[in-house]
Structure formats: structure tokens, C-alpha cells
Amino acid sequence: MITHPDSAMHALIRNEIKVEKRVVEGGERTFRFVTGRRHGLGWLLPRYLRAIGPRWPDELLERWSGDGRCLVDGQVVGPRWQVVPGRQVELRVSPLPDEGHRPPPLDLLWHDRHVVFANKPTGQLTHPAGKQLSGTLLNQLQDWAVSQGIDPNEVRLINRIDRETSGIVIATCDLTAHQRLAAQLDERSIRKAYRAICVGVPEPRDGDWREPLGPLGEHTIRRGVLPDGQASHTEYHVEEVASDGSHAIIRLELHTGRQHQIRVHATHHGHPLVGDWVYGQLIAELPGQALHAWVVECAHPMTGEPLHIEAPFPPQLATLWERLRAGGSATAIELSADQRSKLG
User: Fold this and answer.
1) What is the helix (H) or strand (E) element at residue 21, kind and residue range?
2) pLDDT value at position 99?
3) What torsion do the CA atoms of 212, 217, 219, 223 make, to the nearest 10 degrees?
4) Catalytic site residue 162?
5) β-strands 166-172, 291-299: how paired?
6) d(CA 54, CA 72)
7) Do the Cβ atoms of 35 and 86 come closer than 8 Å?
8) How many helices and strands, by DSSP H and E, does the chain display?
């Protein structure tokens, strides 16, 4: 992972300006902001836009700023426009197809006018990132909102799960519901339970992993157990063991919500999740880790009614477990060049 030379200045620009993001007809997105008065002055347009969307590839920034999608004070400008302070900038971005993934139809587990519980499949991004601006779960939820007569700009995510993790994602359809559910999340009153397939059998079979976690550096996506890391607590229970003791299904409950928490804790204790290419071994049967966001329990944000939402174990994981439970094995494969680059 290469750090962009302007990264420090990008952070200053993002702190100086406020970006308004909106979804419009046809899934097009607009980004509006007023250029700041201190940082990035004199920069060419694509360079300044990188601060706004740090994960957008350079080729997309060049294309968007060169094909009439960027307006300054209502006038189309090109990639040679130099930033001056106090100008109203609007960038219009059309969804791009994700050539690597075609998501199945949206799977809603429960919903009303205020809150939605969706079942995200393995391989789908939760929200737009980098050059993928369509085909994500958030895109699907916004399209669904339009069909329900709900403003798609009111759809907000409460939780996010990794692309390779399947299961429950919560979204809200109005600001009040979002604020109330977000408060429940901050107070740790939302119960989140996962199921996973791990290598070996944790002992004791019921317990808690409490090691503090943190990033392992700028040039890797990996995280690890660190003395000065964030306090972390994963509760685990062994549900079922393979006939040869080589694998187990474990139920996990998160009492904190650190990035990669389950995966790092499991690996630290000698039981990496099956298929976890970041902390274990990539396999042919899965695109990533065998981890499923299984149960969510919370209070309805408007009525206070207790909600229990459950997402069934996906067929891909169920089929793999049947093989492993009988004493079979998964097929180890090599990482791609892109995956290796992310590990540093």
C-alpha cells in the first residue's frame, strides 16, 4: 500500500471544507462543496478532488474533471482549472458497473418506514468505495427507498461488515431513527452475534477474548494484538466440532466493535477463520473468511419495541461446513498480486 504524497494536505483540506453528498435520479451522485481559503490553493482540479475522494483512482478523477461533470459557480470547468478560495464546486458522478460482481436481488429480513435489516451476501461491498460506485448494498437500499416513496438521501447505515463477510446490515430511513439507533450502538445496547467456521477447536469451549487491538502499520490492512491497542472483547462459544477435530463452528458475540476484531482474536488464539486470506489461508471454496453476521437484537428506534432479527447461515458456508464436519478439507490457493500488496 503506497501512501499518497499529498496525504497530509488532503486531511487539512477535508477538515477545512464540508462536502454535501446527494443521490439524484438514475443513481447519479453529486458532491458539492465550497473551496477553502487556506489549503490546496493553486492546485489543479483533479489533485484537489483527490482530497475529497481519497479512494477514487487517479484515472477516474481525470475523467470526471475532463468530461463536463465538474461545475464551478455553475460553469463547466476542465482538469486545468486552478483552485481559488470560496468557489462553489459541484461534481456529478454516474454509477460505474462493477465488472467483478453482480449482486443478487436485495434481501430484506425486516423493515418498516424507519429501519431496514438487510441480509448482505458474501462478495458485496456494504457501501461505495474507490471506483465501485454501484452494486453495493447501500445502492440497493437507496433504489428500494425510491420505490417506497422514501428520499434515498435519508438512507444511512448503522453498521458495516467486510465485503467477504455475509449477514445483517442495519440501515435507517430518517434522521431521528438514525440518531436513536446510533445512540444504542454507542451505548453497546445492540446485541450482535456471529457464526464462523474456524481451524481447530478453541479451549475452553466457552470463553472470552479480551486482547487490545490496533493497526500494524500504514502499509498493511492487517491489525493485531498490541499492548497499547484499543480495549476489545469477543465472547465465543463452540457450537459444533468436525469429526476429526480439525474445524469447528463457533458462535461469537461482540461487546466492542473494533475493525477485524473477530478475525484477529481468533487468529491470535490459534484458530484463524477458514478462508481468511488476511490472517490465515485463502481457499478456492470461498472469496474470504467464513464469517456470518447472524443475529441482531435492538430496540425499535421509534417505538422501543424489542426486535430480534436473524439471518440464516448462507448455503455457501453450510455446504463447506458439511464437507469439513465429515473430515474433509478445503482447497488452499495462492493470493493474488493485489491481495499480497494489501498485506504490505
Assistant:
1) strand 20-23
2) 46
3) -10
4) yes
5) parallel
6) 20
7) yes
8) 8, 17
Cis geometry, peptide bond prior to residue 95 (ω within 30 degrees of 0)? no
CA nearest neighbour of 116 among 27, 166, 195, 181: 181
CB within 8 A of 340, min separation 6: which ones? Answer: none
**DSSP codes joined into one string, 275-313:** T-TTTS--BTT-SS--EEEEEEEEE-TTT--EEEEE-PP
Please enumerate in sequence order all residues whose Cβ is within 8 A of that of 279, keeping only pairs 6 or more positions apart, or say none. 222, 260, 263, 264, 266, 267, 272, 273
pLDDT tens digits for range 35-65: 999 999 999 999 999 888 877 777 778 888 8
79-115 pLDDT per residue, tens: 999 999 999 999 988 765 544 556 789 999 999 999 9
The catalytically annotated residue of 112, 162, 208, 338 is: 162
Block residue for cell numbers 464469517:
291
**Residues facing 235 on adjacent strands:** 208, 253
Cα dihedral sign for 145, 149, 151, 154? negative
The grid coordinates listed for 220 are 498493511
- Residue 115 carries which side chain, given as an amino acid letter? V
| Burial label, 26 (beta-carbon count in 10 A; 0-12, 13-18, 19+) | exposed
Between CA 210 and CA 208 the distance in angstroms is: 6
Going from the C-alpha of 302 to that of each of 115, 179, 224, 295, the distances in angstroms are 9, 11, 38, 20
pLDDT, tens digit, 9 for 90 and up, residues 120-159: 999 898 887 655 566 789 989 988 998 899 988 899 999 9
